[in-house]
Amino acid sequence: MEEQKTSAGQGLGVAGLVIGILAVILALIPCIGRIAIIPGVIALALSLVAFSQANKGNGGKGVIIGALVVSIIAISVGIIQIVFFAAVSTEGGNIKNKIEKVAKKFGDEFEGEYGKDFEEAMEDIEKSMDEIGDDLEETMDKLEEDIEEIDDRTKELSDEEKAGKMGKAAGKAVKEFVKEMKDTTDIK
């Protein structure tokens, strides 16, 4: 004959489940989800006590196991957020420095090839565009081909070296474009 299931541990199990669900909801909120660890640990403790009571008193364990799972999920998501934001905060400065180095290398090589900085080159392009018009698309296609060719040839280079080569190619292409535009306007 089967033993009757009791309600042993059910009150704590339900409390653990409710707090666990709230902890999961809190854990899914970016930036503040790490706070979910606190209610998650409380829900886990309540669920473990409820599981112990259910084992001793032959109580149902469905709700209690659900509470355990939900509280573990909340704690896990909170810990993941802590690890993620710690990694971002330590690597953020490194990423920023790398971007600055790559941008500087591009700018230096561009200016070295073209003779002017990028903003001045864009002004030259605008002036030439006003004078010529539709030839820009053909020149931009050539620039894109040159950049793709450089990218294919530089797969083994570092990001800084690639940026330098691309800057040089872009400077050369802009230089040729402006020269072509001036030559075209001289003919008219």
Q: Quick one: biggest sheet? A: none
The total domain count is 2
Which whole number gives the mean pLDDT? 79
Order of helices and strands: HHHHHH
Low-confidence spans: none
Shape label? rod-shaped
Q: First CA to last CA: what distance?
A: 106 Å
The total count of strands amounts to 0
Helix content: over 70%
Beta-strand level of the residues, as a percent range?
Answer: under 5%
What is the radius of gyration?
32 Å
Structural class: mainly alpha
| Count of helical regions | 6
Protein described:
Helices cover 82% and strands 0% of the residues. It has helices at residues 10-27, 37-57, 62-114, 118-132, 135-153, 159-187. The chain starts with 9 loop residues before the first helix and ends with a helix. The protein has two domains: 10-92; 115-187, no CATH class. It is rod-shaped and about 100 Å long. The chain has 188 residues and is mostly helical.
Strand and helix map with partners:
Blueprint lengths: L9 H18 L9 H21 L4 H53 L3 H15 L2 H19 L5 H29 L1
Considering the chains and any ligands shown, give keywords for the structure.
6 helices; single chain; 2 domains; mainly alpha; 188 residues
Task: Give the gist of this structure.
This protein is mainly α and 188 residues long. It has helices at residues 10-27, 37-57, 62-114, 118-132, 135-153, 159-187. The chain contains six helices and no strands.
